[in-house]
Amino acid sequence: MTTTFRIAPSILSADFARLGEEVKSVIDAGADWIHFDVMDNHYVPNLTFGPMVCQALKPHAKTAEGVAVPIDVHLMISPVDALAAGFAEAGADLISFHPDASGHVHRSIQAIKSKGVKAGLVFNPAEPLDVLQWTIDDIDLILIMSVNPGFGGQSFIDSALRKIEQARKLIEASGRDIRLEVDGGIKVDNIRRVADAGADTFVAGSAIFGQPDYKRVIDQMRLALG
Ligand code: DX5
Ligand code: ZN
Q1: Other CB atoms within 10 Å distance of the CB of residue 22
Q2: How confident is the model at residue 3 (pLDDT cuts 50, 70, 90)?
Q3: Which of 36, 41, 165, 175 has its CA 20 to 30 A from that of 152?
């Protein structure tokens, strides 16, 4: 069975003064999803953007042919539920959160899905996958952090490869269609190794927005993925 690989540029590394243009440019360059990092300076030591920015960017998240490109919202906030509802109303297509940021993980998943939005769980580098035992039948996405959340431009933490392998086994055992996304330090020269561990969706911020030619980087990533 061939794997469909997805590349999700993270706008955390984009030019904030021109976010709409940046979203359009990276979609023209071949992005499959737009990764939207939400930080509250509480769960993580940084502060980014809220639902209003997601709503403003939604009309820009489409191809030249008018096909909508999914907005993949990564919530690094605590509590989760109120803002998750806000992002669902603002046009998010996928919303993922950190289990240790919600007092009621299953309820938070249900609340996201009740809005017709796909739900995901995010695992920090030291966080075990145990909660998946009780939630794998309800989620659409598993996001493995390969850096400690809060900043772009950090180096890939190799122990994430073993966790990706574990998550891939759990997805296969579940028989469900669940995306396995990896976030942090993804580059042209390591993306193949991450795919070999079992990932199918790759967040990349500084590797793409830190370069003048977004298309060249995305094409190189696709070439490496084969
Ligand atoms: C970090 C964010 C990541 C980050 C990735 O907390 O969740 O999405 O923007 O940036 P790079 O690819 O530069 O590591
Ligand atoms: Zn992220």
Answers
A1: 21
A2: confident
A3: 165
Residue in 72, 93, 183, 200 annotated catalytic: 183
The yes-or-no verdict on residue 81 having pLDDT over 70 is yes
Q: Determine the 3-state secondary structure of 184 from DSSP.
A: coil
Inter-residue contact 83 to 188 (CB < 8 Å): no
Q: What pLDDT, on the 0 to 100 scale, is given for residue 168?
A: 98
CA-based nearest residue to 183, from 223, 151, 224: 151
* Each residue's pLDDT tens digit, 116-135: 999 999 999 999 999 999 99
Tokens of 65: 């042919």
Beta carbon of 152 within 6 Å of any ligand 1 atom: yes
Handedness of CA 68, 186, 131, 90 (dihedral sign): negative
Instruction: State the amino acid at position 42 in one-letter form.
Output: H
Question: Looking at the predicted structure, is the pLDDT value of residue 147 above 80?
Answer: yes
Asked whether the bond before 125 is cis by omega within 30 degrees of 0, the reply is: no
Asked about 81 being catalytic, the answer comes back as no
Beta-carbon-side half-sphere exposure of residue 223 (alpha carbons within 13 Å): 8
- Tell me if residue 183 is catalytic: yes
